[in-house]
Predict the structure.
Amino acid sequence: MDEVDLEIERSNIHALVGESGCGKSTLGLALSRLLPEKRVQYTGRIVCNGTDLLSIKEKDIEKFRGTQIATVFQEPMTSLNPVYRIGEQMAEALGVKNHRDLLHNGTMPKPNPTHLMGVGDDSILMRMRRKGLYHQFADEVHELLGKVKIPNPERVANMYPHELSGGMKQRVMIAMAIAEKPSLLVADEPTTALDVTTQSRILELIGSLKNDYGMSVLLIAHDLGVVAAVADKISVMYAGKIVEEAPTKELFNNPLHPYTVGLMGSFPKGRKDNSTLKTIPGVVPQLGRYPSGCRFHPRCEKAFGRCPNEIPRLIRISDKHKVACYLHGG
Amino acid sequence: MSTEAPLIQVVQLVKHFPVRAGISAKLLHKKPLYVHAVDGVSFDVKSKETFAVVGESGSGKSTLGLTILRLTKPTSGEILFERQPISSLPERQLRKLRKDMQIVFQDPSSSLDPRKRIIDSVAEPLRAGGEKKDRSEVKTNVAEALRAVGLSESQMNQLPHQFSGGQRQRISIARAIIQRPKFIVLDEPTSSLDASVQSQILLLLQQLQSEFKLSYLLITHNMSVARYMADRIGVMYVGKLVEIGTNTDIIEKPLHPYTQLLLSSVLEPSAETKLKHGEEEGEIPSPVKPPEGCRFNTRCPYAKEKCFTTDPELRQLERNHFVACHFAEEVQSSRRNS
């Protein structure tokens, strides 16, 4: 990921689209500084509600995760612990929050790491602790499950993850993410592992939660159709850079970057006998082995003299439309 | 529609998998449970045709593909390959037929042996077919197959990890076509690929079909892929085909409420795309205990009393259009009015 500028407006759904390996998930993780700090170099700033998250010490960043920025990942199955009941897991998250609040107010000494870090996770003591937490937070858990439109929250809270369908699990993950009313929800491919019918319902849920809470959503997806349905604004990413950015309507009616045009053309719209499927030749370059100049130029049909040598910048070409391509200024 | 005999005929095919019983169930002599993966499916695939099977995950469409190729033995029913019944053919005789029927799986990184060179993976069907060929002959065959899928023969000594996902899928397609089969089951061939690569593979499959006169059984959950590729489409739900018709029938005049639900969930990349606000919140029921009556009754907005008692048979409504719904006519007219 390289020199990415992204502005997410309040209570908006901002979509980040691109093929696998273009760095969109890395960006999602970087926003809440979830990347391994020792191996990653950040330059630039991440400003959330006026605070630069990169200037905060690593141990204090905890305060921001969940409260300011929360994340929902692609595969709900791997995000949930299979051996604990839904209610217990959710209560644990709420417990951490409670703990943090007390710590923040200075009414509690240093947190006991076993509670937060999951040390001795499967000991009998931890099991009992989780049960206790569930009793303590049962009402909140049920309320949250109700908010993500899970029917019969009391019953679901007592189930194990394997008893739930993929869509239900994703709803549970979303419930945990919105527990502290974050100002930004990062949803990283939230519907990719789900069936098409479930996909629409989850997108609908994210849209309605955005309205209820006034939160912003960064929706990361590889599927232009998914973002077309819900996003207010779309950034298209290729090989670690944002190549085009525009409000949803504008982007689909007037795509400018050859990569965006290619992505839209490669969606099978008609039938084989009455339409032609377009393709983008070649493949996404491997991480770190990016071509010189414009990173898309080896796959671009319209590439010319400047493209392999100079790097186009993302420039504003109209009121709301930004693009990084020499065909359009640059 | 031609009158020649279909290449593949599937007649009342059933595949049940036993559920492993827990110790308490065994001690109590409970009735053993079965996963009704495929539950009485009949259709045919004509020569040079693409027949798409669409449905959500858990509908049994992959099991259907495996069973038709006899990669798993059907519980009952019959599969006719060029009029020859193969459902109870012994393995030995089946082997001769294997070269005419092949499969391409969803995830090429798990269907290719990471330690085998491409030449060995692609030549595998030749060896399994029992044909004795010397090394140079194998090499020319593999080179031909690789060229046909748009790879270069100079890459045949490389290992799978040296290729991208799209290229790996090309390799598995090369392996499927090396024996010049007549019929290929494509099990979600593009689901693990990126959008730009998906269209490359779809075009390749289309080109190979006309070049080698192939018939495809395309298994997919993606309605737009089915619409693009298929001549006819069968819609599968919890082990049963609920609607069969030509591409136009299914896409433009869907009769079964489930087909309509699937179609309304397609999100196209365009400025006009909106989420359809569905009333139905349900999800696909467990194939261990499919609902009584029509299996879609738990999610169907039109369900009436009859749907909870009687399982609808697949019946013909138009020339090539079959549907398993008691109230298909009413569903269709109410849809037109809305």
